[in-house]
Give the backbone structure.
Amino acid sequence: MAADREQFIRLLKEKGLKVTNQRLLVLEAIASCPEEHLTAEEIYELVKVSYPEIGLATVYRTIQLLNELNLIDRINFDDGFVRYELGSAGGRRKKHRHHHLICLKCGRVISFQEDLLEELEAKITATAGFHIVDHEVKLYGYCVECGGDFIEEKRE
Amino acid sequence: MAADREQFIRLLKEKGLKVTNQRLLVLEAIASCPEEHLTAEEIYELVKVSYPEIGLATVYRTIQLLNELNLIDRINFDDGFVRYELGSAGGRRKKHRHHHLICLKCGRVISFQEDLLEELEAKITATAGFHIVDHEVKLYGYCVECGGDFIEEKRE
DNA sequence: GTCCATGCAAATGATTTGCAGTATC
DNA sequence: GATACTGCAAATCATTTGCATGGAC
């Protein structure tokens, strides 16, 4: 939505930062791929389509800014790239980031949004004095195409 | 325990790999810090105490081997280092890795072992055809020293 | 003796940074 | 017009790799 864009512009102005084409285009690129988990390089390539002069360093700097403003979240699938996706806090009031199913065979990543651990968080806060504000869950397994359905039968 | 060591030696022999001092010392270093989440550099420094000739590259290569053998697990706290800890599958039959409470203020990491998501895993396997075999959970918040206890009162 | 493993130094590759020119406010 | 932003190239820094030597079996 353009909601992210408007919020970004507002936040930039609030902080005395400048609203530039490059910044808007980086956010737009990320927002245009809500199902993807983009690397800096991928975002760079996307923005270059409509703005070929942009530099990779600018993309990195903008990503950092967007992350500080909580407009995007970082995710790490341990494949050597840090990835980014539209933030869970983006405008709306959802407080938790969403989670990921990761296929161990083909590497496919499926996102899902669900508050998995509310109860557990409350319990830990009460017993350990550790006040939890967010959680991140990665589930590893095998997707349907990679044998998720019937792998059980093949074992033992 | 020395159980890890024996298992390591057995696995090396099974695969026609050589049992070297360096390999045993790297595993020993990790096993000697069960509460820590060591970086490659930290492991290197630990091993150097008893074996100063070891090279950092050997540590990296051994870590990779240990990880492939499932004797250690990788964890990433997004601070620029990959970290390692004794594997959840190490000898015993625990199938899930353990989880982490991460303090957003001081960075302290507390591990805990608990099967959090058995039910959820079963549900997703049944409905999405995605067969889950492991999960990783990171909980973010504030530890007791950093105001975990009373931060609730300070907010609005 | 044969290979595999090691140590060193050089290479890699994602991300960061310095700086002079450029655009926003 | 001042100041922040950009693009480029050079710098960083964790990790990997090539290669000749050394060690395990």
In short: Residues 18-21, 39-41, 56-57, 60-61, 80-82 of chain A lie near DNA strand C (CB under 10 Å from a C1'). Chain A is about 40% helix and 20% strand. Residues 96-156 of chain A form a domain with the Dna Ligase; domain 1 fold (CATH 3.30.1490.190). Residues 151-156 of chain A have pLDDT under 50 and may be disordered.
